[in-house]
Amino acid sequence: MPGGMLEGWKDFYVAVASATSALAGLVFVALSINLEKILAIPGLPARGAETVILLAGALIVALVTLIPGQSSLMLGVELGAVGLVAWGAPFALQIAAGRRRTYVKRWHFTLRAVLHQAATLPILVGGALMVVVETSAPYWLALGVVLSLCLGLLNAWVLLVEILR
Predict the structure, then answer these.
(1) DSSP readout, 1-61?
(2) Non-local CB neighbours of 72 within 8 Å, separated by 6+ positions
(3) In sequence order, which residues have a C-beta less than 8 Å from that of residue 59 and are 6 or more positions away?
(4) Rounded to whole angstroms, what are the CA distances from 133 to 60, 73, 92, 138?
(5) Are 14 and 66 in contact (CB under 8 A)?
(6) pTM score, two decimals?
């Protein structure tokens, strides 16, 4: 881990990698069990994709953070790239869905966009702060992965249970 900045964070990122892997597996099960229903409801396939990207982003953040011997610059660039994809790809899906008016209510779009931004922007901030060797970087990254896990759990619930109501 770079220059002691992430000293003491190894256990956290090992736990994040384990939890995120398990949750991603749950999402894949939810998608496969309810695939017909998910494909029949406008906007849900995109929500499934958003969830997979969100969880993959958190998992990759944990994994690249655990790579030994990296400089803060290199790790910051890697985290920035992961954060950019985890933020940008789902946001593009949400904007496209909003333009197609696939959301039942306008506030659904707003809520999903705000929650996703709140979960992924801290990863981008953490990556940028890692590049400039700011000591708050690990806390921003932790905030991003914890919020990503929370949003992933919420989306998994919707994809597994709520769509059957």
Answers:
(1) -GGGTTTT-HHHHHHHHHHHHHHHHHHHHHHHHTHHHHHHSTTHHHHHHHHHHHHHHHHHH
(2) 2, 3, 5, 130, 131, 133
(3) 16, 17, 20, 21, 24
(4) 20, 8, 30, 10
(5) yes
(6) 0.87
Query: What residue type is 110 in one-letter code?
Result: T
Give the span between the Cα atoms of 51 and 21, in whole angstroms. 13
129 and 77 Cβ atoms separated by less than 8 Å: no
| pLDDT tens string 79-138 | 999 999 999 998 888 888 777 777 667 777 788 888 999 999 999 999 999 999 888 999
Which residue shows structure tokens 């929650």?
115
Residue 140 tokens read as 């921003």
